[in-house]
Amino acid sequence: MNSLWAVVPAAGSGRRLGGDIPKQYREIAGAPLLEHTLRALLGSADVRGVVVALDPSDRRADAIASLSDVRVQTVPGGAERAHSVLAGLEHLALQAGDDDWVLVHDAARPCLSLDSLSALIAEARSLNEGVILASPVADTLKQVNEDGAVTATIDRSTLWRAQTPQLFPLNSLKDALARCLEALQAVTDEAMAMEWAGEPVHVLEGPTSNIKVTVEADLAFADLMLRTGRE
Fold first, then answer.
1. What value does the mean pLDDT of the chain take?
2. I want to staple 23 with a disulfide (CB 3.0 to 4.6 A). Which of 14, 62, 103, 185 is the partner?
3. Is the pTM of the predicted complex or chain greater than 0.70?
């Protein structure tokens, strides 16, 4: 691993959360959610630069202070998350080296700790293969039919919930994601593209506090976590 970069897809509308503005601009703990996310990445001395994919028609990004950091660049986002990530990767490929790596982090995961980020980077350097933060599934899982009736209980012992950041060699991820988008209708995370391409992906257990803000209750939880950590 030579230089390490980051891509943050932030062009979405956050339809599941609702509200008048996209969730990445909702304020928690005294700042927009996206601002907290960028601070978490820029707080690592290992991260050389960050590319943020934005909706070019949305001027709310003008209020994000960290977008003025010299290490931050922006690109127009795409129709879906994967297209925004690919736009960021293609932008980085024009300036990055062949041995550079990239981590992709959800704009809506503002509670990433420096310890977790540093552990992910160290693990990828040790293995020299892709690594993602993830958490083991704790709940009992049920398989149901179209009528809502339970048909089976699923063994959860090998199941993990993917988080971000997800860290891979930049060029390998760019090529895998581009080819995967051509072949599949939906690509839900970077690990899926790398798996599809036959590339190795490892998990590193991340904290349950590293949540993705999806519903209103998540906003309240993230606000509490950030205020508690700051205090």
1. 92
2. 14
3. yes
**What is the residue extent of each domain of the chain?**
4-230
Q: Could you give the CA distance from residue 53 to residue 22 in angstroms, rounded to a whole number?
A: 14
- What sign results for the dihedral spanned by CA atoms 18, 104, 84, 163? negative
CATH code 3.90.550.10 for 4-230: yes
Q: For residue range 35-71, list pLDDT tens digits in order.
A: 999 999 999 999 999 999 999 888 888 889 999 999 9
CA distances from 187 to 80, 93, 120, 145 (A): 9, 21, 22, 24
> Which sign, positive or negative, has the C-alpha torsion 79, 81, 86, 89?
positive
What six digits make up the tokens of 124?
A: 């990828």
Three-state secondary structure call for residue 46 = coil
pLDDT tens per residue across span 206-225: 999 999 998 889 999 999 98
> How many Cβ atoms sit within 10 Å of the Cβ of residue 202?
15
- Structural contact between residues 107 and 214, judged by C-beta atoms closer than 8 angstroms: no
